[in-house]
Amino acid sequence: MVELANFAIHTLNGIQYGFILFLIASGLTIILGILDVLNLAHGELYAVGAYVAFSVFGYVSGAFANPEGFVGLATFLVLSLLAAVVAAAIMVPLGLLLEAVFLRPLYGRDEVYQLVLTFGLLLILKDMNKLIWGPLPVRAGDIYSGINRIPAAEFVGLTFPTFKLVIIAVGAVVVVGLFYFFNRTKLGRIIRATAIDREMATAIGVSTDRVFTLVFAMGAFFAGFAGAMALPQSNASLEMGANPLVLSFVIIVIGGLGSLRGAFVGAMIVGVLSRWAVWQYPPAEIAAPFAIMALILLVKPNGLFGTWGETA
Amino acid sequence: MLKATNLKKSFGQLVATDDVDVEFGREPGEMVFIVGPNGAGKTTLVNLLTGLLEPDDGNVVLTRTDEDGETVERDITNMPPHERVKAGVVRSFQVVHVFEEMSVRENVRTAVLSEQDLLGSAFSFSDEHGGVEALVDDLLERFRLDDQQHVVADKLPHGDRKLLDVAMSFALDPDVLLLDEPTSGVSARETDYVMETIVNVSKAEGVATVAIEHDMDLVSEYADRVVALHQGGVLGEGPASILETDDELRRVLLGVGA
Amino acid sequence: MSDDDHQSLKAWGRRSYVPATTTRDGDRYVRVSRGMVLSPRRIAGWLALLALFVAVPDIASLSSSIQQRVLHQGVLFGLAAVGLNVLLRHTKLVSFGHAAFFGTGAYTAAVLASQFDVTSMLLLLAAATLVGTLMAGVIGFLSLRHTGLYFSLLTLAFGQLLYAIAQGQSYLGGSDGLPVRPGEANRATLFGVELSADVYSVVVYYLTVLVVVLALFVMWRVVNSPFGNALDAIGQDRTRAQFVGIPVRRYVLAAFVISGIYGGVAGGMYGLVQQHVRPEATLYFLRSGEILFMAILGGFGTLVGPLVGGVVLVFLQDVGRDFTNYFDALTGIVLLLLVFGFPRGIVGSLQSGSRLRAAVSTFSDDPAIVGEWATEAWTSLWAAVGRARRNLRMLVLGVR
After folding, report:
1. Does A111 contact C335 at a Cβ distance shorter than 8 Å?
2. CATH number of the domain at C67-345, please?
3. How many structural domains are present in chain A?
4. Touching C: B residues 226-245, CB under 8 Å
5. Would residue A80 count as lying in a domain?
6. Closest to C6 (Cβ–Cβ): which among B99, B118, B173?
7. Which of residues 123-162 of B touch C (CB under 8 A)?
8. Cβ distance of B135 and C228 shorter than 8 Å
9. Are 3 or more Cβ–Cβ pairs between B and A shorter than 8 Å?
10. Which of A200, A290, B94, C37 is the most buried (most CB within 10 A)?
11. Is the separation of the CB atoms in B33 and B219 below 8 Å?
């Protein structure tokens, strides 16, 4: 019975982690699928999001460092979510700037240059974080300590931290929202059409420039949002961008290039499996996602839902 | 001789090739044109014959006469493209595919090196194989490209690019050469020049040539035989004169006499 | 073409022999060996470069500001970049996981030295090369089904897998890594001879020079061979390459393995030089990025460019570390300058017909042009910022 409860807890942890991963990977996969740009600086945008959320929340939360009672705790939760949205919103102009200044001149050039460029941006953004927030990790635990006061949720005999449930809920809303956006709204369909055939999209009067800008801003938004959502349970550090970036790659490979559905399934697989690994055999945690990736590649070279991967 | 039997291919609901039986290269140097309206399945047929696509059903057999004068049959239905090339089935594309950053000479040399099975050699110099260079010279001359042999391919005028593409195909010493619209995109002034060059070389070398062509004047002038496709199937075949005499063909192809 | 014709055409083939010195466009050229005809200036340049390499230990002992170790490390990463360049320059595939082979080589040497007490330098190096090659075979097999960015992404992920393994396995020393200190003298031996610390570093250095010269020569032969020609063909038009009869998958895998060999050798040498191997320094994906960057910095359209890029980058980072805390950003800015200003890299920009050459000659004609360039750069930057602002307004307020 304890085993079963543990299993459920770790699975829930995995799902929660999976949603965080999906938030990161979704931005990357949208940019990759539509702009044909592999944004290596994506992980740093995630880190910037975390740092900004830290500052924003730290600024407003002075009064709520020790929230009391239901109202206080509820305000704390709402504020932390608001901080995440603000942090993500701040990423939008940053994303627009990066796209307009650096990426735009590179469309149509050898793809190696955009890799070098986004790699350069990665290094610069990393040092920018260092300049603003210092070389040491900022301890999010202090300002988010209120999190521990929120009573854990209890259901069918399991206790589970409420904030993680909030992340799951928010993640689910984002997933539904993204699918709705790309499948049901006119703008979403225009963006997908652009991804499939740029020339055709231009021919029917779509401004691909605007679509690219919008998509890049969306990608930056979700990267920042993911960083801000992940922050309360960890620290913001200079190295924090690397791991999510690489895991996003793994997720994209598992799910299939350019498939949002694939990114979701991939994120869940990686999230749950790596949490199970932590539980059963901790050394496997880092390697597990890659092992899954290699396995899936052997069976399905284009990933689970991939149709866009080019084959030789 | 390249022979397809009961060849079928569909993409979802669309039947692109519907139970096609064709033969190409009944005699050396035979010039066959595939004609038909857009969407008749011409390019799909060529793709199936050359290995870019795999058929859902049916087979493709290559028959050739070896050195001892014996007839050898090979089923090449599921053979990958590069092996088909080695077996003697070579193609060009509607859109020119050449190596854009290489000079004309280097392009042709690459094909000749491949034909001579020298491309695997990692410790000789590409341009030091005397026999290869002589073959390259000969091909450049036949396709009237020798003046431009040091021009980089993407700087070449369009008609010459088409010729370069075909020259590379000839360099591969094909038994059967399939050309997907060799004159597409070539200016009206140049089409005759391009087609005449191709036909001259293929007749001289005895290469059975198959070309998809929309220009009925060119077809009438150069065809030994015509295969007409419509809605994935063979509508008719025969000498070029059937384009004048077969009413149904005329109706489908030219919209005449409807 | 009929077979008869082929025979007669083959008989026409005659070899042309080039004399020892030859004249092209009025300039004198010297024929160094088959396939290598150089102008006297270039020969002098090559000899000078070689002499410089050979003299490095002496220079380093004279001047304390130049560290042999830094240069040495640059040369080794540069060698890996030369290998990577087979893919980048010829088959046009961007591998972002080349540290995998470098690290595999380094770790092979370390494991053999520390766990099996293998002392022979040459044996360690050979094993590093072999295992690096095998690793390239496996990773290549799995990633080469794809091209373009998907391929880059796969190579990066596989590289990170190896990093994760090295981090996680206590047998491999975890994040502390492993020492490469076999034998009683704590150093590898050459032909059974134990070397003192000073001699060891010099011997390892000259071994590196030997390996690099040999590796460059082999690479030069390969890229000018019909095989190199086939790789160029694959890079320029994959479809056409198939339809001239090239077994594309097999050839690309061969190219990938060749590039892996270079990574393995370089990594093995690195293990011998540093005498300690860490996952962070050899396998981390930022190292893969750096190897790629070295090739581009030096000029990936050239043979020696990646090597030059390696030396320059490692040197720059080393100097940068002393100079500022923000050396990563410094590297990043160099990258941006490279992408926008000198896409052909250092060596490529020095070659004739490059933008740099043209710019320099314009500049010497009229130094005032600098002002114009600055204005131009400023205008285009300002235009981009303006575009970003407009886009933001559009996003917030909607299209009007």
Report:
1. no
2. 1.10.3470
3. 1
4. none
5. yes
6. B173
7. 123-126, 128-135, 138
8. no
9. no
10. A290
11. yes
| Nearest chain C CA: its distance from A151 CA (Å) | 35
Q: Where are the domains of chain B?
A: 2-254
Residue C96's pLDDT is 86
Q: Which domain holds residue A158?
A: 2-299
ipTM computed for the complex: 0.87
Q: Which portions of chain B are predicted below pLDDT 50? A: 258
What pLDDT score was predicted for residue C135?
Answer: 93
Chains that touch A (3 or more CB pairs under 8 A): C
pLDDT computed for residue C16 by the predictor: 43
Are residues A112 and C285, on separate chains, in Cβ contact within 8 Å? no
Asked, for residue A96, whether it belongs to a domain, the answer is yes
Q: Is the pLDDT of residue C32 over 70?
A: no
| Segment 175-214 of chain A within 8 Å of chain C by CB | 210, 213-214
Question: How far, CA to CA in Å, does B187 sit from each of B155, B158, B183?
Answer: 17, 8, 8
C250 versus C340: the higher-pLDDT residue is C250
pLDDT category of residue C234 using cuts at 50, 70 and 90: very high
- Reported for C139-145, long-range contacts at CB under 8 A and 24+ positions apart, including other chains, are C139/C97, C139/C100, C139/C256, C139/C260, C140/C252, C140/C253, C140/C256, C140/C257, C140/C260, C141/C253, C142/A294, C142/A297, C142/A298, C144/A312, C144/C93, C144/C249, C144/C252, C144/C253, C144/C256, C145/A301, C145/A311, C145/A312
Contacts with A291 from chain C: Cβ below 8 Å: 161
At B194-237, the pLDDT tens digits run 888 888 888 888 888 999 988 888 888 888 898 988 888 888 88
Dig out the tokens for A88 from the structure: 């993500």
Report whether pLDDT(C58) > 80: no
**How far A252 CA sits from the closest chain C CA (Å)?**
9
Chain A: closest CA distance from residue C151 (Å): 9
Q: Which of A100, A119, A294 sits opposite C391 (nearest CB)?
A: A100
Does residue A308 sit within a domain? no
Asked whether the beta carbons of residue A116 and residue C340 sit closer than 8 angstroms, the reply is no
Q: Per-residue pLDDT tens for A31-73?
A: 888 888 888 889 899 999 888 888 887 777 665 556 566 677 7
For C218, which residue in chain B has the nearest alpha carbon? B123
pLDDT tens by residue, A104-162: 888 777 788 888 899 889 989 988 888 888 777 777 666 666 666 666 666 666 677 77
- Give B68-104 as a DSSP string: TS-EEEEE-TT--HHHHHHHTEEEE-SS----TTSBH
The bridge status of strand B57-65 relative to strand B2-11 is antiparallel
Check C336 against A128: CB less than 8 A apart.
no
Q: Say if A199 falls within a structural domain.
A: yes
Residue ranges of the domains in chain C?
A: 21-65, 67-345, 372-400
CATH architecture of B2-254: 3-Layer(aba) Sandwich (3.40)
Confidence of residue C231 (pLDDT cuts 50, 70, 90): very high
Q: Does B65 touch chain C (CB under 8 A)?
A: no
Alpha-carbon torsion (B233, B238, B240, B242), positive or negative: negative
| Alpha carbon distance C146, C70 (integer Å) | 36
